């Protein structure tokens, strides 16, 4: 009797080891697929909740304040300097050809098409996707989400939908502000550093833009807003392992959100360029 | 209510009669919370069935469950109060969701907060309250719409003996005044005995010991039964008397 358990444990240990490599890989793959599925489900549900009642207007307004008004300072501050840096960098190249007046065109197109939406998306991810993830994560670990469900409220409606709607509405507005402030910063830099006239800069900047640029520049932030809200909510609502888990979720919301935005940006750019050739 | 089979829990089957309090006794990690969450439909069992108030909870969709849960009060272990809302808003939450007129909300919030003797905390936030007060607010929140069933998840865990006693007294009053059916998870046997051996006397307006073990005077014939969990299954099921006089070494450990 004393020998048998030893034999059994030995055999079991071996079997476990052999199975564990395949199992670990298999489990990891399954988990990854399940995570994508959960994320898609949460996003789909949230979109559907936006278009059906009941709505939580108060919560949506609060989130609009948090995501929109709350992000204004960082958008204003970084927007101004992004525009200024753009002018300094491009200007230093244009000086070689004596074509400094072209900086207005370049800065306007780069800002409206690309830098405005991308920087707004990344900055708001850093501020709000993490904020959403940590808030919902803390609510989850303190059982507040369960309490909500226990009292007959759908957390998807009460927590996810208002954040998604707020992000979808606020990101284009923030981008517009970013674009404007960026041009303002660019104007300041070109006046003080390149000795261009402010009027000349603005005229060229506005002439350089056409409708396709604006379309591209304002479709992107809607998609980025979607990514920010859904990633933040998904990471928050899938927290495992207490407060440490909340920390991990917050970090991963920032990382996954930023990477997704950059990847989405590339595809959206390609798509918009293709569409603008076809349509406009 | 009935249960069958679970992932951590296996072969758990029990019923709770009307106005009965079933004490789920067990060490931490034996599946007490799991049982309560299954009863409220917050978790779905892998197999078996959960039937509450004639609804097969284990088969219901989330949408139906949300409506069904209006009939259930759930008191979470740490209270699970919404920390971004004041006490009054926490308690009023359910009524707001159901678009009850503001006047009625005010009145009913005051009423339940009076019941848990916390009417002075209306405007305070959960973070400003002590652990025992938070539990009481949580109980007030659970009973705002007078649910016929209340599920208590370790209401006395982590509280000092005196505060624990006030919580148990509150649960007692809730049982005897509103006549709720309850499922109470705890690791303290004395919680169960207190519920079994005392009742709330509406005339004297205080909690008095029962004349005879388990049977209260007059209309207050609320029964208390015990269910002891061990290693993911039911280890013991029976009346308070049986557990008190048990010779079983495992059950005796709870008596100390």
Could you describe the 3D structure shown?
Chain A has helices at 3-51, 57-67, 72-97, 103-141, 144-150, 155-192, 198-208, 211-237, 242-279. Chain A contains 9 helices and no strands. The longest helix of chain A has 49 residues, at 3-51. Chain A is mostly helical. Chain A folds into 2 domains: 1-52; 56-279, no CATH class. Chain B is of the alpha/beta class and 256 residues long. Chain B has 2 domains: 1-18 and 39-60, no CATH class; 64-231, P-loop containing nucleotide triphosphate hydrolases (Rossmann fold, 3-Layer(aba) Sandwich). Helices cover 36% and strands 18% of the residues of chain B. Chain B has helices at 32-39, 62-68, 87-97, 102-115, 131-142, 161-178, 189-197, 240-244, 249-255; strands spanning 21-25, 51-52, 55-56, 72-75, 149-153, 181-186, 198-201, 206-209, 224-230, 233-238. Chain B has a 6-stranded mixed beta sheet with strand order 4-5-6-1-9-10, with helices on both faces. A two-stranded antiparallel sheet of chain B has the order 2-3. Chain B has a two-stranded antiparallel ribbon with strand order 7-8. In chain B, helix 3 packs parallel to helix 5 and helix 5 (131-142) runs parallel beside helix 6 (161-178). The radius of gyration of chain B is 18 Å and the shape is globular.
């Amino acid at each position: 009797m004393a020998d048998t358990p030893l034999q059994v444990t030995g055999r079991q240990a071996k079997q476990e080891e052999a199975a564990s490599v395949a199992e670990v890989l298999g489990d990891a793959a399954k988990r990854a697929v399940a995570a994508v599925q959960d994320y898609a489900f949460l996003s789909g549900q949230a979109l559907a909740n936006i278009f059906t009642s009941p709505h939580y207007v108060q919560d949506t307004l609060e989130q609009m304040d948090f995501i929109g008004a709350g992000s204004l300072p960082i958008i204003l501050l970084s927007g101004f300097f992004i525009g200024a840096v753009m002018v300094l960098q491009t200007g230093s190249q244009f000086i070689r050809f004596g074509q400094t007046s072209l900086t207005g065109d370049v800065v306007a197109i780069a800002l409206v098409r690309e830098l405005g939406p991308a920087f707004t998306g990344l900055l708001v991810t850093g501020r709000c996707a993490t904020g959403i993830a940590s808030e919902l994560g803390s609510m989850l670990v303190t059982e507040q989400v369960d309490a909500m469900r226990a009292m007959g409220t759908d957390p998807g409606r009460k927590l996810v939908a208002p954040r998604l709607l707020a992000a979808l509405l606020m990101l284009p507005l923030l981008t517009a502000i970013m674009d404007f402030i960026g041009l303002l910063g660019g104007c300041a830099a070109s006046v003080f550093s390149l000795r261009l006239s402010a009027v000349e800069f603005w005229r060229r900047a506005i002439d350089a833009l056409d409708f396709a640029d604006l379309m591209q520049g304002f479709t992107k932030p809607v998609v980025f807003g979607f990514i920010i809200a859904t990633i933040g909510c998904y990471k928050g609502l899938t927290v495992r392992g207490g407060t440490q888990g909340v920390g991990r979720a917050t970090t991963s919301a920032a990382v996954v959100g930023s990477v997704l935005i950059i990847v989405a940006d590339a595809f959206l750019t390609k798509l918009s360029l293709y569409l603008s050739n076809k349509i406009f | 209510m009935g249960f069958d089979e679970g992932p951590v829990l296996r072969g758990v089957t029990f019923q709770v009669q009307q106005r009965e309090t079933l004490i789920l006794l067990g060490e931490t990690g034996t599946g007490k919370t799991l049982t309560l969450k299954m009863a409220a439909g917050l978790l779905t069992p892998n197999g078996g069935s959960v039937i509450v108030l004639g609804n097969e909870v284990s088969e219901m969709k989330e949408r139906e469950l949300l409506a069904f849960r209006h009939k259930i009060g759930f008191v979470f272990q740490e209270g699970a109060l919404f920390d971004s809302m004041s006490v009054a808003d926490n308690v009023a939450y359910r009524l707001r969701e159901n678009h009850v007129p503001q006047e009625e909300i005010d009145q009913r919030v005051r009423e339940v907060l009076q019941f848990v003797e916390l009417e002075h905390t209306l405007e305070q936030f959960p973070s400003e309250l002590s652990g025992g007060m938070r539990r009481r607010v949580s109980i007030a929140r659970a009973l705002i719409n007078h649910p016929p069933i209340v599920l208590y998840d370790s209401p006395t865990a982590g509280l000092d003996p005196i505060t624990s006693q006030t919580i148990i007294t509150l649960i007692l009053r809730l049982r005897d005044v509103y006549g709720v059916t309850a499922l109470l998870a705890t690791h303290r046997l004395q919680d169960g005995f207190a519920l079994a051996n005392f009742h709330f006397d509406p005339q004297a307006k205080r909690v008095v010991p029962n004349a005879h073990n388990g049977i209260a005077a007059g209309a207050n014939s609320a029964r208390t039964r015990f269910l002891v969990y061990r290693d993911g299954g039911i280890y013991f099921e029976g009346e308070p008397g049986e557990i008190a006089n048990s010779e079983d070494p495992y059950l005796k450990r709870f008596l100390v």
